[in-house]
Amino acid sequence: MAKLSPIFIVPAIIASAFAGYFFADHGSATAAAPIAPVDEVKAASAPSSAAALPPNHPHVAGMPQAPHATGAMPNGENERPQSIDWKVPDGWQSAPNANPMRLATYHLGAGASEATISRAGGPVDANILRWSQQFQEAPQPDRSEKDVRGIHVTVVHLAGTYGGSGMGGTADEKHDGWAMLAAIVDAPGAPYFFKVLGPAAEVDGARASFDSLVNSVTPRAAAQ
User: Fold this and answer.
1) How far apart, in Å, are the Cα atoms of 41 and each of 38, 52, 62, 68?
2) Rounded CA gap, 159 and 177, in Å?
3) Contact, 194 vs 209, CB < 8 A?
4) Cβ–Cβ contacts within 10 Å for residue 3, how many?
5) Measured between alpha carbons, how far is 18 from 15 in angstroms, rounded to an integer?
């Protein structure tokens, strides 16, 4: 067999090495990327449970709320069909609700007092105790009961140094000489809470209006 001249062998070796390098390294760049399983794709696109939503951010499925994220989610009882109606007293002005726990908020005038209506569960005595403990002195309530159009109503009056409801996640400012008028309206579905809170003189001066509010409660015929 004829021997090849070194002048042909050396270029052939170089060309072979270059081709091997090119296809081994660059050829893989054009290869199709592996397809991730469907479960992995869903996991990658789903929100991470490690990071919490900021306070007061609307709820997103699968995401935890940040600590003290009050008002982030509506009160479930407030979302039930309304089972009663009421008449707003003359002189009371509707105002924006400070949080989703409220169904209605009213300003009583130029003072610091406001009236709120909300709906929640829990035994009557437990709710009254909770309101009492919002005052520094935890006063004994002045309590009375009555029926309004077949609906049982418990009315309480509390006074002292109001320390706040604790709903804001931080310490509330204390208010000396404040009072609370509250009525638990035992309506079908879940009770309604009617409350007036503010300086004692303003709250006591609103007693007649508050009584008219409570006495106006009327059950809805189609209430569930």
Assistant:
1) 5, 22, 16, 33
2) 7
3) no
4) 6
5) 5
Q: What is the pLDDT of residues 202-211, one digit of tens each?
A: 999 999 999 9
- DSSP string of 8-70, one letter each residue: HHHHHHHHHHHHHHHHHHTGGGGSPPPPPPHHHHHHHHSPPSSSPBPTTPPP-TT-PBPTT-T
Domains recognised in the chain with CATH numbers: 39-70 (no CATH), 76-219 (3.40.1000.10)
Strand extents, DSSP E, the chain: 84-85, 93-95, 102-107, 114-119, 142-148, 151-162, 175-185, 192-199, 218-219
CA-to-CA distance for 74 and 58, rounded, in angstroms?
A: 9
CB neighbours of 25 closer than 8 A, spacing ≥ 6?
A: none
Q: Indicate the pTM of the whole model.
A: 0.64
Distance, CA of 157 to CA of 180 (rounded, Å): 6
Q: List, for residues 161-174, the tens digit of each pLDDT value.
A: 999 876 544 457 89
Report whether 87 contacts 213 (CB < 8 A): yes
Instruction: State the maximum Cα–Cα separation within the chain, in Å, rounded to a whole number.
Output: 124
